């Protein structure tokens, strides 16, 4: 009887694991194959050697790029190199990125930048918020940009128990923001178990010096976050839910769910065109290939433009699709006029005229 019970239990466990595995592979888009769709005259951006995970652009064409992310379980081609913030002036004829100097007193050796967000203050001061993972922990670093000097002055490091695993942020004031947590757990084994089991425990948190609160939850893997140009709506990419969630933002910085847009790909960071309001999403068409990074079977890239997200029928356009032969693991796509910048966690970004 003991053996029969053990066999029955083993059978149930095997069935559950099998069911979870199938569901996990579906969430990862593991069987998706790609038909490349390229844009003419794109070139890889020289001077970005260890990744271009997130990009944000000022109205004057200065693009800020976070480079050198090391993320648990993900391939890194320069595991010992510290991260950096690069600046590229898109108004120049042949823009080349330069590293921004960071003021003394900031712990540069362990700089591991992830999502970023710019905020222009009332006095035209430019603030750069950077998600950082020193020793694989999560902090948000607040910098002030000094253009004359191509430098960042470090203002403060923000740590909070509600910000344990931050992926991306969108600034809403000179020292306040919404942030996504991409995992509930922080320990590597548990965070992978969380993904495998398909728990939807990740969230969005509002932070200000006076108040910190969870404002949305129920995501498999909350990733990119951004806001409509009028500041009324907040967009959140759920990477493993393959969705973009739209929330209405209120004066007290709470969020009300408004709608969801189902995609057939894994959306990472979201950018918003300040003139058209279109959302540009850097996407991973096959999450399994991204995770495994097999040089013989490279992860691909996909860039989507979403027009009219609030309308009855949003228009989703595949702008760029690559099987990985040119760019792998696209994490962001952002536009400045007729320039499209595509970033990736692994290597150089791509600059395409639209
Ligand atoms: Ca961002
Ligand atoms: Ca991200």
TrEMBL record:
Alphabetic keyword roster: Calcium, Disulfide bond, Glycoprotein, Hydrolase, Metal-binding, Signal
Got any disulfides in this one, which pairs? 42-352
In short, the EC number is 3.1.1.2
- Positions of Ca(2+) 2 binding: 54
Which InterPro entries does the record cross-reference, listed alphabetically? 6-blade_b-propeller_TolB-like, Arylesterase, Paraoxonase2, Serum_paraoxonase/arylesterase
| Family designation | Belongs to the paraoxonase family.
* The name this protein goes by in its record: Paraoxonase
Which species is this UniProt entry from?
A: Varanus komodoensis (Komodo dragon)
Q: Give the classification, highest ranks.
A: Eukaryota, Metazoa, Chordata, Craniata, Vertebrata
* Name of the encoding gene: LOC123022598
């Amino acid at each position: 009887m003991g053996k029969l019970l053990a066999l029955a239990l083993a059978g149930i466990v095997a069935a559950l694991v099998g069911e979870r595995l199938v569901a996990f592979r579906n969430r990862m888009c593991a069987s998706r194959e790609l038909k490349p769709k390229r844009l003419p005259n794109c070139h890889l951006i020289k001077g970005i050697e260890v990744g271009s995970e997130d990009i944000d652009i000022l109205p004057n064409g200065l693009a800020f790029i976070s480079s050198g992310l090391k993320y648990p379980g993900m391939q890194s081609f320069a595991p010992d190199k510290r991260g950096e913030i690069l600046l590229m002036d898109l108004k120049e004829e042949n823009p080349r990125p330069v590293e921004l100097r960071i003021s003394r007193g900031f712990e540069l050796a362990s700089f591991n930048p992830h999502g970023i967000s710019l905020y222009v203050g009332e006095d035209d001061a430019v603030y750069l918020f950077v998600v950082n993972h020193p020793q694989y922990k999560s902090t948000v670093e607040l910098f002030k940009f000094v253009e004359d000097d191509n430098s960042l002055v470090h203002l403060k490091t923000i740590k909070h128990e509600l910000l344990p695993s931050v992926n991306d942020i969108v600034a809403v004031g000179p020292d306040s923001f919404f942030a996504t947590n991409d995992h509930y757990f922080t320990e590597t084994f548990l965070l992978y178990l969380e993904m495998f089991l398909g728990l939807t425990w990740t969230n969005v948190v509002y932070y200000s010096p006076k108040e910190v609160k969870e404002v949305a939850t129920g995501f498999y893997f909350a990733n990119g976050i951004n806001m409509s140009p009028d500041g009324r709506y907040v967009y959140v990419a759920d990477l493993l839910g393959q969705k973009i969630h739209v929330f209405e933002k209120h004066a007290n910085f709470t969020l009300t769910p408004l709608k969801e847009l189902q995609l057939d790909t894994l959306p990472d960071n979201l950018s918003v065109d300040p003139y058209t309001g279109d959302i540009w999403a850097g996407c991973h068409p096959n999450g399994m290939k991204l995770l495994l990074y097999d040089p013989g079977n490279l992860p691909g890239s996909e860039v989507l433009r979403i027009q009219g997200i609030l309308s009855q029928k949003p228009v989703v356009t595949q702008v760029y699709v690559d099987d990985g032969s040119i760019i792998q693991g696209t994490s962001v796509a952002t536009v400045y006029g007729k320039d499209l910048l595509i970033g990736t966690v692994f290597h150089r970004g791509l600059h395409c005229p639209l």
